[in-house]
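An example makes the point: we print one protein in full, the chain in one-letter code, the fold tokenised, without further comment:
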Amino acid sequence: MNMLTPALMYFHAVAQEGTLTEAAGKLHVSASAISRQINKLESSLGTQLFSRHARGVELTEAGRLLLAYVRRAEAEGTAVREELLVSMQRKTRTLRVACAEGFARVWVPSAIATFSRQHDDVEFHLDVVSSSEGTRRVAEGEADVAAVFSLGPQSRVTVEHSMPTPVAFALVAPDHPLASQPRATLQDLCRYKLAITAPGSSQRELLDLAMQIEGLTPSISLQSDHINPVIQFARAGVGVSLVSGLSLDRRDREDLVLVNLDHPVLRQRQGQIQTMTGRTQPAILTAFVDALIDALELFE
């Protein structure tokens, strides 16, 4: 059940699809019906919501403001429906979580497990995505909360909590030459084979920038979208893996050696818990955000 008015439903579809024809196909109505509703909506609001051109339509500034409202209304409508179903039928509530790969191995799953022990009526949907995609999903109402890395301020979402999450460690096997050093420089890293996350990640972006500033060229033997192969690279004794502390479990810390990395650029990253701006949070989401913050602060 969609709690939006027909006019807002049609507006949302056109904003998503970019043309009246595609929106009509999605909603199984005529394009003329959508056009009439959009015209009435613009007339009632006293402003133009779309700029029309030959290839379709684009949102005006007023249209972008209305789209943000519609997304919040959809998210709150979903929460209200779930709360009603829970009260009447004891139905399971769903929390949609988006998180970056570096958070998905230990911290977020641990927080979910702890929360689940205390809340039998909550079901989690966890998607591991890039940090930018996690922020987008929260901003557009496709996720309830995101745990991501950020290299700067965020204007599209509400940052519930933020903490430094530097690319802090060179991870090596106990018999590696770097294992006896308290800290390592970028020059040290360039002497060995490296494993690191793939281009597009905040970790890789910071390493590339730091190497460029120092005029260095690292020997990258493994780059991966997932953190497990990167950690296994160090475990196998092949070379050096670059990680943050949040990616490591107890076995990693017991079996491998963490050597502190020493470069200011590698410290320019924040871990953030993000929610949708302007949305009235259901109580269960607020409780889970608090649980995430409590779990994250254990690493601070």
